[in-house]
Amino acid sequence: MYQLNDFAQRTDLDNALANNVAELLSNALSQKGKASLAVSGGSTPKGFFTALSTKDIDWQNVTVTLADERWVEFESEASNTRLVHENLLKNKAAAARFFHLKKAGECNQATLAQLNTDAKNNLLPLDVLILGMGEDGHTASLFPCSEQISSALALDNTDALMKVVPQTAPNDRITFTYAHLAQSKNIILHVCGAGKKVVLEKALSSNNQTEMPIRAFLQNPDINTQVYWAE
Ligand SMILES: O=C1O[C@H](COP(=O)(O)O)[C@@H](O)[C@H](O)[C@H]1O
């Protein structure tokens, strides 16, 4: 299920979302002395990242990671890791730790096995997950056009992270699987623009998850996805 939080301006959304995420992280820090946050990449979250980076929380005990990453070098314009370093891990948030999904070399079985072990031992379940959504209804790198979509969405997938090769988007990807994203304690979908509202409405109008993977979050009765949308 989901709840829609509608904002007239993107800056209003960025500030409200940053306040909410800071509060959720503070609650986790008070309860267990540490907190984990997975964010998404793409073109949407820059303003939110900057707003969140100024929040006065115990960033030293926060681990930030990505819901998914393109398998590209840090210097690439397409790197979500670079986006997070340039826009979130600055100001007060510069003290946070970062859990890298992209490693040197190929995204092979050995790399994935090590990443899966590290993520399960040190990071999961996530306290806060911020998802984005593409025009095709993909979220994280759960791409409807990929051969891997069934296993990426499978609730019994024991892998936390897997490689995905989209057919209609550039770059091989590494993504957290739905089974592990869905265990996050707080799940937020951040989308902006009239086009994405249409995609959201389409996602709510039917339940085929392999056609639009975002449906797995919006239509799961056990998950309360907070949708943040602004024009
Ligand atoms: O490729 C990706 O796309 C989605 C959506 O990005 P946007 O540019 O339409 O906001 C993003 O959530 C994901 O992290 C990214 O890798």
State the gist of this model.
GO terms for molecular function: 6-phosphogluconolactonase activity. With 231 residues, the chain is α/β, with parallel strands linked by helices. The protein has helices spanning 10-32, 46-53, 80-87, 109-122, 149-153, 178-181, 194-204, 215-218; strands spanning 2-7, 35-39, 62-66, 68-70, 97-98, 128-131, 161-164, 173-176, 186-192, 225-230.
Q: Kindly state the number of beta strands.
A: 10
Ligand species? the ligand O=C1O[C@H](COP(=O)(O)O)[C@@H](O)[C@H](O)[C@H]1O
The SSE string, one letter per element, is EHEHEEHEHEHEEHEHHE
Helix proportion: 25-40%
Q: Predict the CATH topology.
A: Rossmann fold
| Count of helix runs | 8
Reported for the largest beta sheet, the result is: 7 strands, parallel
CATH class: Alpha Beta
> CATH architecture, please?
3-Layer(aba) Sandwich
Strand sequence of the main sheet, in spatial order? 1-10-9-6-2-3-5
Please indicate the count of domains. 1
Whole-Å distance between the termini?
A: 22 Å
Indicate the proportion of strand residues. 15-25%
Assign an overall shape.
Answer: globular
Low-confidence stretches: none
